[in-house]
Specification:
The chain is α+β, with helices and mostly antiparallel strands. The protein contains ten helices and ten strands. Strand 5 and strand 6 form a beta hairpin. The chain is globular. The protein binds (R)-mevalonate.
């Protein structure tokens, strides 16, 4: 039996912009999807998905998941007809949209196949393989999700011919709250929508993209200086930029406003947007609890976790 894990993630700055080469900052969170792989006597891949999370998530993503598994096994030159396998998914990372569930699941599966069949893949190869699978979920993914899912930690990421990936070390981890709108979003469509609008309204979009690029350098400095008030303000600004490229949503904006009202240092949507999750910066257990319980009172699922 082979085992593998992949981390969930939160994007703190510049989802979507990152697809087009603008740097972004993401952090892995301490929740993982776990995969177990056993050889079986059936045909091809038998997938048992025991992950918990947003209702309907696994069903909604089933076609993408199957395409992703085909892409991943083809890329690995792993013959599933010759080596039929049963994959069981579990772990404590919920299947919320925006939390990197697809990338975490692919990294976990690739690691588990690697483990069971003793393929000796390096982390870099595991990351590249998971990226191939991510294309099924996100169309033209930047690679930030699978990178966070593979390596963990707080990361600076810039997509390029060779991606620039840098670990950012901060003084100590910071509490965050992730609020789930409960809306499953189709990341592929949202990413494609941004591309279409960017081509249609180049002047307006290029200006926002330039602002997002300027902002992320300030955010990096604020994080490294552990100036959390400033990090929060910049998250608020980044949310505004994401609204300008039209990837926000009613429930996301509601949760972002609620978090700010309850004292979060900053709040924004995170991940693909439209539905999915938002993130609030809430240093200290007490503030984290205040913000998290306010969201729960409104009937939303939340995660209390940390970045860094
Ligand atoms: C999804 O978690 C993040 C996006 O920027 C897509 C990507 O970077 O691949 C929306």
């Amino acid at each position: 039996m082979g085992f593998g894990k992949g981390y969930g993630k939160v994007i703190l700055f510049n989802e979507h912009f990152v697809v087009h080469g603008v740097p972004a900052i993401a952090s892995a969170i301490d929740l993982t999807t776990d995969a177990e792989v056993v050889r079986h006597s059936g045909k091809g891949i038998d997938l048992i998905d025991n992950r918990k999370g947003t209702k309907g998530y696994s069903k909604e993503k089933y076609a993408h998941q199957m395409e992703a598994l085909k892409r991943v096994t083809d890329y690995m030159k792993f013959n599933v007809e010759k080596n039929p396998i049963k994959i069981t998914l579990g772990g404590n990372l919920p299947t919320f949209s925006g939390i990197g569930a697809s990338a975490a699941n692919l990294v976990a599966i690739v690691r588990a196949i690697n483990d069971e069949f003793r393929l000796s893949l390096s982390d870099e190869e595991i990351n590249n393989t998971a990226y191939e699978g991510e294309r099924a979920f996100a169309g033209t993914p930047s690679g930030i999700d699978n990178t966070a899912a593979t390596f963990g930690g707080l990361l600076w990421f810039k997509r390029g011919e060779k991606n620039a990936i840098e670990r950012l070390a901060i003084k100590k981890p910071v509490e965050i709250v992730m609020g789930n709108t409960g809306v499953v979003a189709n990341t592929k469509e949202v990413v494609a929508g941004v591309r279409e609008r960017k081509e249609k309204y180049p002047e307006r979009y290029n200006k926002i993209f330039e602002e997002a690029e300027e902002l992320v350098y300030k955010a990096r400095e604020a994080l490294l200086n552990y100036d959390l008030k400033r990090v929060g303000k910049l998250m608020n600004e980044n949310h505004r930029q994401l609204q300008d490229i039209e990837v926000d949503g009613k429930e996301l904006n509601f949760l972002v406003d609620l978090a700010r009202d309850k004292g979060a240092f900053g709040a924004k949507l995170t991940g693909g947007g439209v539905g999915g999750c938002m993130v609030a910066l809430t240093p200290g257990k007490e503030l984290q609890e205040t913000v998290a319980s306010a969201m729960e009172k409104e009937g939303f699922q939340v995660l209390r976790t940390k970045i860094g």
